[in-house]
Amino acid sequence: MNKFLEKIFYWCYPLFKKWGFHDTLASYLSLLVNILRLWFFSYIIYIIFRFILVSLMEIVAKKTKTKFDDLLITNKTTKYISYLIPLVFVYKSVPIILNDFVYWESIFGKLIGIYIVLLVLWIVRTIFNAFRDYLKQNPVYSDKPIDSYIQVIMIILWMIGITVMISELFEIKPNTLFTTIGAVSAIIILIFRDTILGFVASVQVSLNDMVRIGDWITFEKFGADGDVIEINLATVKVRNFDNTTTTIPTYSMIADSFRNWRGMLNSDGRRIKRHILIKAKSIKFLSDEEVQSMKNIQLIRSYIESRQAEIHKYNTINDVDKSLPINGRNLTNFGLFRKYITQYLQNYPGLNKEMILLCRQLQPTAQGIPLEIYAFTKDKRFENYEYIMSDIFDHIFASVTFFDLEIFELPSEKKQ
Questions:
Q1: 3-class SS at 111?
Q2: Is 65 helix (H, G, I), strand (E, B) or coil?
Q3: What are the residues whose beta carbons fall under 8 Å from the beta carbon of 402, sequence distance 6 or more?
Q4: Contact (Cβ atoms closer than 8 angstroms) between residue 294 and residue 286
Q5: What are the phi and psi torsion angles at 274 (to 5°)?
Q6: Best CA proximity match to 311, nearest among 290, 334, 288
Q7: What are the DSSP calls for 297-355, one per residue?
Q8: Local structure of residue 141 (DSSP, 8 states)
């Protein structure tokens, strides 16, 4: 190749000497002409190879089933490769053109060499980006932190590239340069502290399957409550439900506690766990007349009849004195209300009956007796889940008065 380049560029100087120009002037005129010729040939080579590479890649992309080659075109890989070929031509031509200008030959040779290294790194980056986009289209890898791994690889390649560039620019042997870097490794670790922590955290997050792209997470420390949209080496991006974006350091995912709702979304239902407070003084035994009145509530009519027969039998066998309601066994308004709510939940169409479903009484508090609903909705979508839960509690609040019960409320005004 050098002989071919010599034939292209060496003819100028003898021609100008033949025309009677002085040596110095002939050298500069030859340099000017060769620079113009170099630019012209480089541009022609760029146009030719860009057309060949881009056209060839488009033909291949159309004929193949894989989308990887389409992504190479999207990420402009062939375009950057077409820059590389004329740049190599320039790199080989510079020593010949600047043969009589040793100082400038050294400078331009180094600069072009550095530019070639940068361009190669950029081409590798576009290939990795195409590989990332290809994997993300595969459902198996769509929720994996691929960005983190590519960033780690690129950091290593950039470190190697920077080492090569420094070696080229200052004519330092790579072994000597690596020795110097080792001596200042403590400073390097300090500078890249977040990157190193992020890399370690990213590996742990991936191996332990702590969070994936698309997961709904709640991270109170950072005010995050929404879907994970990106996991990279340094940060995890969360799109909150108010359409804001929260950026969380990746290492915080293993250093602090956060809530991942993936298990709930993958399950057969979303849990409702909410209670109301019933005033203790409103709970009472029911008289026969009140029990008879409660039979008008269809959901618990059969239950009341069976319980009433069972209680009557018990009280008769044990000769219970029923002059006082406290004697023997009796029905209470609170007990019937719990049974009514249980039956109501069993008949509610939006709940998953194959999962836990109950209405239970919790430890009494200073504000009253907590009556808790514990059930699971079939629909796990946020808006539908909230609607179902609100609909259930609307009915509960409205039903309380039919059982002569009262819900605890703080007084709106202080008594004088």
A1: helix
A2: coil
A3: 297
A4: yes
A5: -145, 150
A6: 288
A7: SHHHHHHHHHHHHHHHHHHHHTT--TTSTTSS---BHHHHHHHHHHHHHHH-TTB-TTS
A8: T
Interatomic CA distance for residues 95 and 98, integer angstroms:
5
Q: Which residues contact 366 (CB under 8 A, 6 or more apart)?
A: none
Q: Which of 344, 356, 354 is nearest to 388 (CA)?
A: 344
Closest by CA to 97, choosing from 316, 89, 382, is 89
Q: Is residue 357 a contact partner of residue 345, using CB atoms and an 8 Å limit?
A: yes
The crossing angle, in degrees rounded to 10, of helices 77-97 and 2-9 is 70
Contacts of 95 (CB under 8 A, 6+ apart): 105, 109
Phi-psi region of 243 (alpha: psi -120 to 50; beta: other; left: phi over 0): left
Helices (H), 10-145: 12-18, 23-63, 68-74, 77-97, 102-136
- Given the DSSP bridges, would you call strands 369-377 and 270-278 parallel, antiparallel or unpaired? antiparallel
Q: Would you report the helix, strand and coil content of the chain in percent, each value rounded to 5?
A: 60, 15, 25
Angle, CA of 49, 51 and 54, to the nearest 5°: 100
Strand runs labelled E in 125-263 = 216-219, 224-231, 235-240, 245-249, 259-260
Rounded to an integer, what distance in angstroms lies between the CA atom of residue 81 and that of residue 83?
5
Q: How far is CA 340 from the centre of its chain?
A: 44
**In whole angstroms, what separates CA 271 from the centre of its chain?**
24
Other Cβ atoms less than 10 A from the Cβ of 326: the count is 8
Q: At residue 359, what is the residue type?
A: C
Tokens of 44: 């022609």
Prediction pTM value: 0.51
Q: What are the residues facing 376 on neighbouring strands?
A: 271
Distances (CA, A) of 52 to 19, 58, 123: 41, 10, 17
The two three-digit tokens of residue 321, written as one number: 């004195």
Q: Report how far residue 130's alpha carbon sits from residue 124's, in angstroms, rounded to the nearest whole number.
A: 10
> Which residues in the chain come in under a pLDDT of 70?
1-31, 33-34, 95-106, 142-145, 148, 171-195, 207, 412-416
pLDDT in tens, 158-188: 877 877 777 777 766 666 666 666 655 666 6
